[in-house]
Amino acid sequence: MMNYCMECGTKLEMRFLENEGDVPYCPHCEAFRFPVFSSAVSMVVQNPTKDKILLIKQYDRDFYILVAGYINKGECAEHAVVREVKEETGLNVSSLLFNKSEYFEPSNTLMNNFSCIAESEDLSGVTKEVDVATWFTIAEAKENIKHGSLAEKFLLSYLDKTGK
Q1: pTM of this prediction?
Q2: Which of 63, 99, 115, 135 gives 20 to 30 Å between its CA and that of 93?
């Protein structure tokens, strides 16, 4: 939750706003300040035959997660999915389907999870943004993804919905 006004720095107080409930209010600016947060996408990337899932390692961390990235200002989430997968892995994707969203407090980000299908399994275009990219069978992906992570939650939700 925001504690200070993003315009003037005054400490915010909660005030009732009709049809909204309690909302942070700046007494100096005399304005309600709705929460500001980042938006990002994460992707369950499947191979063309939909029997493998792509997991990556990043930032010298020793665990696998889903491909993810921030949505740029003015960009729709679906475009961010295609762009981020291409930027990080070199893969082109299609057949985007929304899975679920969840707020991720550590980075103040609304994470929007999608599934998509890569045109190939060719990982020769993986960029420096990714330390390791590996295709796993569905069973291996469930075993290798970072346990207790939001990435695991998204993956398991998707697999549950698709009956895999």
Answers
A1: 0.84
A2: 63
Instruction: Name the nearest CA neighbour of 142 among 45, 64, 41, 88.
Output: 64
**Alpha helices, DSSP H only, in 9-134?**
77-89
Buried b (16+ CB within 10 A) or exposed e, 86-110: eebbbbebeebeebebeeeeeeebe
DSSP conformational letter for 12: P
Q: To which residue do tokens 């697999």 refer?
A: 159
Please give the structure tokens belonging to residue 127: 């960029």
- Give residue-wise pLDDT tens across range 91-124: 999 999 999 999 998 888 999 999 999 999 999 9
pLDDT class for 1, splitting at 50, 70, 90?
Answer: low
Rounded Cα–Cα distance for residues 123 and 111 (Å): 25
